[in-house]
TrEMBL record:
Keyword terms: Cell membrane, Membrane, Protein transport, Translocation, Transmembrane, Transmembrane helix, Transport
Name of protein: Protein-export membrane protein SecG
Subcellular location: Cell membrane
NCBIfam families reported for this sequence: secG
Topological type in the membrane: Multi-pass membrane protein
Membership in a protein family: Belongs to the SecG family.
Keyword Oxidoreductase among UniProt keywords: no
Membrane-spanning ranges: 53-75
Functional summary from the UniProt entry: Involved in protein export. Participates in an early event of protein translocation.
Top-level lineage group: Bacteria
Entry annotated with the keyword Transmembrane helix: yes
Length: 78
């Protein structure tokens, strides 16, 4: 069971890396750092389409990773 969970956590780790790399880049230039980002105050909007889907996939994979890690800790302590 331990080896199965270890294999699952490795697969989920690779999938998390792929999901994070596929997310669109949010570029911040140096001017927004100096101005405090005031120009982006009203530019914030909810992600839609592919970006929203990738965020949900990343959250789900993170929760699965966390659960698998807790299961591995429990198995290794008993």
């Amino acid at each position: 069971m331990y080896n199965f969970l270890m294999t699952c956590i490795l697969i989920v780790s690779v999938l998390i890396i792929i999901a994070v790399m596929m997310q669109p880049a949010k570029t911040n230039d140096a001017l927004s750092a100096l101005s405090g980002g005031a120009d982006d105050l009203f530019a914030k909007s909810k992600p839609r389409g592919f970006e929203a889907f990738m965020q949900k996939v990343t959250v789900v994979l993170g929760a699965i990773f966390f659960g698998l890690a807790l299961a591995l800790v429990y198995l290794s302590s008993h």
